[in-house]
Specification:
The chain has 301 residues and is mostly helical. Among the domains are: 51 residues, no CATH class; 47 residues, no CATH class. It has 16 helices and two strands. It has a two-stranded antiparallel sheet with strand order 1-2. A hairpin with a 2-residue loop joins strand 1 and strand 2. It is globular.
Length: 301
């Protein structure tokens, strides 16, 4: 009995001396602790290519990876880099600026989407051709032909000038798209009114018009006849394109294009809803892109 009492006492003594497990508050591991430098470099490389159309220089890579790592890869450090590539106008050795490069990339991407990536040199050749036609018309006193060919040349010049006008905020993204659809190159790609109507809907809305919509639009384009489309009135191609680019479906199309080009997938319903509302408030494509580029899904983290 005495032996049992001794053992029991020893157990109690050992238990009372046993060190309790310490718990430290606010000591969670960093959320991106396991992300390798290579993964961060891949993210930086992808941002440079998607936003300004080239890979970063070695010095740029080192700098941007360091900034991201110092910020713990948090949203603010990513936002800083994305905004830098989209908007920083400081001169870069051997280049213009990130801001100019970004807008050039947007211009080229828009041409790729709408005009099969036609070069500015080709557009310039078409301008010269219509200018020559206009000159011949003036010599022959064909004043109607002169006006038609001068207008064709001007619309093509407006495409080339749009990259500078958009950069200077002299035109909106809606204007940029309307210019890309209202010219002879787009007409040559999508010959005749039937194809033009279907292509303009597909390019901007990612859908074809319903039969009712098509029947409403056809006389507007073919005959310059006044008609109603998408709740608005138009009576020629220019007004028709203004209606399309002012519609909510155009905003949805921009969001869809951004997701497809950056994530190779269409947005989910809630993503589309949120970003369309965002774009309605600020009319800023850079913000749509930022909201995608800042995500772990895009970064691959």
């Amino acid at each position: 009995m005495r032996r049992l009492t001794f053992i029991f006492t020893a157990i109690l003594s050992f238990s009372s001396c046993k060190k309790e497990k310490e718990v430290f508050e606010n000591n969670d591991p960093p959320p991106y602790e396991g992300i390798s430098t290579l993964q961060i470099e891949n993210y930086v490389n992808r941002l440079f290519i998607d936003l300004i159309g080239r890979e970063p220089l070695d010095t740029e890579m080192i700098e941007e990876v360091s900034v991201l790592e110092a910020g713990g890869l948090n949203a603010e450090s990513r936002r800083f880099l994305i905004n830098k590539l989209q908007k920083n106008s400081d001169t870069i050795p051997g280049d213009s600026s990130y801001f100019i490069a970004y807008n050039k990339k947007l211009y080229e991407d828009t041409k790729a989407r709408l005009l099969e990536g036609v070069s500015d040199e080709f557009i310039g050749q078409k301008v010269n051709l219509y200018e020559a036609y206009a000159y011949a018309d003036s010599i022959n006193e064909n004043f109607l032909g002169y006006e038609i060919n001068k207008a064709k040349a001007l619309r093509l010049k407006n495409i080339i000038n749009s990259q500078y006008a958009n950069r200077a905020n002299d035109i909106t993204i809606q204007n940029l798209y309307a210019l890309m659809l209202n010219n002879t190159i787009y007409d040559d790609i999508n010959m005749n009114t039937f194809n033009f109507i279907n292509a303009s809907f597909d390019n901007l809305f990612y859908r074809f018009p319903t039969n009712a919509e098509f029947n409403q639009i056809f006389p507007i384009i073919e005959d310059n006849a006044p008609g109603q489309i998408l709740g608005e009135v138009a009576q020629n191609k220019e007004e028709y394109l203004q209606v399309l680019t002012a519609n909510t479906e155009f905003k949805e199309g921009l969001v869809t294009w951004a997701f497809l080009s950056l994530l190779t997938r269409e947005p989910f319903s809630n993503e589309r809803f949120d970003l369309v509302n965002q774009f309605t408030d600020d009319n800023d494509l850079t913000e749509i892109q930022l909201r995608i580029l800042i995500t772990d899904e895009y970064a691959g983290f």
